[in-house]
Amino acid sequence: MQNETLRPETTPAGLAEFRPVIDPSAQSHPEGTLVDKYGRRITYVRLSITDRCDFRCTYCMAEEMNFVPHSEVMSLEECLQVATVFVGLGVSKLRITGGEPLVRKNAMWLIERLGALPGLDNLVMTSNGSQLDRFAQPLREAGVKRLNISLDTLKADRFKKITRIGELKKVLRGIDAARAAGFTRTKLNTVMMRGTNDDEFADLVQFALDNALDLSFIEEMPLGEIHGRNTTYISSEETRDRLAQRFELIPSTENSGGPARYWRIPGSESRIGFISPHSHNFCDTCNRVRITAKGELYPCLGQNDAINLLQVLRADSSEESLRQAIVDSMGIKPFGHDFTQQMDAPQVVRFMSMTGG
Ligand code: SAM
Ligand code: SF4
Known about the structure:
It is built from 12 helices and 12 strands. The protein is an alpha/beta fold. It has a single domain (42-355), classed as Aldolase class I (TIM Barrel, Alpha-Beta Barrel). A 12-stranded mixed beta sheet has the order 7-8-9-6-5-4-3-2-1-10-11-12. Helix 2 runs parallel beside helix 3 (107-115) and helix 3 (107-115) packs parallel to helix 4 (132-142).
């Protein structure tokens, strides 16, 4: 979407004049500019634009969270600068995430500009769905291609328990709004938790089939200091076995470029995916890095090494310094995470809401 289509009320004061400088030579980057030391090409960035959220999901956040002070969070212009440099380095897919990205004030200002960024072919978002009844249409108009929406249960009281403060009906309205806005291949994300939602997996699959949605089941990861994960962990394999009692699951060779492995159900277009960081490590094909709301570049979700891009940006706002820091980060991308199923001790001290899922 071009600038003239920006609604004035969503344009923060002082931001409208900012234009990223795109170096044309950087856009025609040589093949494999961002290649890590294991030869993996990085073409996908997950950008967290806030660590704040209107839910407090038990697997993602502590009940009392200390959020990052606003002064330490990347401004929207800084987010755009970082994204622009990545795209110049050959990144073609960007996922906006959080926290809940749609609670970031003026998020549309950024999203409209990202949607117009030459070379960024695939702008997508992960959301909890709570704000989509307002934002689905503007997101679509801004060029967001696909949405992932988290949904762990179809029961309102259970939803409240899992999210602590969320309302299921808002999310269901959001899913409807996404469809009405013309989004297709919307994917639900379901974190599998024994004793919490494992009796609903088949119903969630049926919901996906009935609403022409894809669905990915996610094995819970040990991120942040949250106790009790050992007892709730449930593997993709176990879930698949249970689903097979109700559905015919045909393994699919389809690959969305991510860690999910997909199954199809005859007679439906929906894909049922499994993201299995424990039981099926997918690090060898990793093509992504993550940027936190504080501007830290984490080359791996499951490790603690990071490079602080915001520090670089605020010390010297030149695009060249930022580009160099990003290129240098390839040197610290580890081969992979080493999540084990000993989940009670956090293997990574950051919460998922901080790194961005
Ligand atoms: N608020 C948005 C949402 O919930 O979709 C985007 C951010 S959220 C951190 C991104 C994804 O991470 C969600 O699908 C959520 O279920 C998942 N997630 C959060 N904590 C997790 C954990 N410990 N293990 C596995 N997935 C997790
Ligand atoms: Fe918020 Fe998403 Fe984390 Fe739930 S999973 S607390 S919705 S950031």
